[in-house]
Amino acid sequence: MALMALMALMALTGCEDGSGEAAPGGGPSVIAPGRPGEAAETLSAEEARKAGEERADKPNAADFSYVTRMIEHHRQALVMTDLAEEHADSGKVRRLADRISSAQRPEIAAMRAWLKRNGGDGEGGDGHGEHGDHGDHGDHGGGHDSGHDGAPMPGMATEEQLDELRAARGEEFDRLFLKLMIAHHQGAVAMAKDVTADGEDTQVQEMAGDVAVQQTAEIGRMRAML
């Protein structure tokens, strides 16, 4: 969207008859709007083109944060689906857990591959400061309610809630699993919406869109099962 805005402004300034401010180096000027709280810049057409290409190709902090945190988010979901295979009473709950697992394992692999391509460690750290040295500690699926950067991660079950789920059996397990997984999915959808608004990377946008669509549909099915 930022690139489209730049191109639209280029078209508008190109139609003017020289009354606008000249960009550095001469030629038509392009006003590039800054992010919230930042001033706009006056760029030449070539500078605007290069800036748009760089912005389109370079992931930003929101992209790295989303991928890093969503890997951990998905890992906990897999812990919960593994428990469903052992303890669920309802065949519908077991089949739902299997579908969730079958969808989220490949998504974790895709997100790890994205991190590796973009300078991360491929395990949930992004190699960009505070995330890069946390390694693979999320694989145990503990009840973390915050991401690697310390910010709250919506929908994550606490360790106490996971212990309760581990101890439950039969119908009690089914109800608790659905309750926790609905909240978990709602958190994932909220994270996907955030990166859609704040991220830059096209592939991350696509991954987030898939998460939002699929998990929203699953929330509806789980609510109907309660």
Walk me through the structure:
This protein is mainly alpha-helical and 226 residues long. It has helices at residues 2-14, 45-57, 61-87, 91-117, 159-167, 170-198, 202-225, and strands at 29-32, 41-44. α3 packs antiparallel against α4 (91-117), α5 packs antiparallel against α6 and α6 runs antiparallel to α7. The longest helix is centred in the C-terminal third of the chain and has 29 residues, at 170-198. It is elongated.
What is the 3D shape?
Answer: elongated
What would you report as the Rg, rounded to the nearest angstrom?
22 Å
Low-confidence stretches: 1-20, 125-141
Individual helix count: 7
Number of strand elements? 2
Helix content: 55-70%
Distance between the termini: 40 Å
Major beta sheet summary? 2 strands, antiparallel
Give, in spatial order, the strands making up the sheet with the most strands.
1-2
Overall residue-averaged pLDDT value: 79
SSE ordering:
HEEHHHHHH
Helix and strand content put the structural class at mainly alpha
Strand content range: under 5%
Q: How is this structure best summarized?
A:
By secondary structure, the protein is mainly alpha-helical.
